[in-house]
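Homework-ish question, so no full write-ups if that breaks the rules, but can someone show me the predicted structure for this set?
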Amino acid sequence: MTTETMLPANLKTLISEEQLQQRIQELADEINRTYRDTEALYLVCILKGGFMFCSDLAKKLTIPCQVEFIRLSSYGNQQKSSGVVKPVDLTLPNLNGKDVLLIEDIIDTGLTLDFFMEYLASLHTPKSIRLAVLLDKKEARQRHVETHYVGFEVGNQYVVGYGLDDQGLYRNLPYIAYFDLDEAAR
Ligand code: 5GP
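A: Not a homework solution, just the prediction itself:
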């Protein structure tokens, strides 16, 4: 039995593996150009959801990089943002004078990134700070957050795969998927 057959029948592909990899290569090309003179670009991956995007993006970067991880939680086990961002682990090296690129799986309300940007600015003075998000759910935005590198815009629906979970599951899928609610109701 393949993994595919063990997934719920109403789980549908939204963005294929090929589309993801192609777009991430385009983003990497742009980042390589922007930071061609950097001493080192600090990739700050926001866990858990950002791990696949960060990993694939990092592999396509040709500039010197350091990779750091922080962990935030805002959804708990719900499919809706709790509105409260819980810092789980914010350990970072000193980023003063460094080029920093935050890597996030998806921006939804914007609360998570708004919180983290403010936190970073209160403790560090980076030379530059930019934001790379794989998915942008513009419709749900509650806070303005400037995004510099965006993979895809998606509608206001709950998506899983490629780092994104539903109650801990589906992070390992190499593509982005959604639950077809009409099919579930049939
Ligand atoms: P925000 O604070 O912008 O509302 O949400 C950011 C975080 O919420 C993301 O890092 C992600 O963990 C989670 N999130 C937002 N939308 C989705 C979604 O459609 N699917 C999943 N699995 N997580 C989401």
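Now go work out the reasoning yourself. Hint: The chain has a mean pLDDT of 91.
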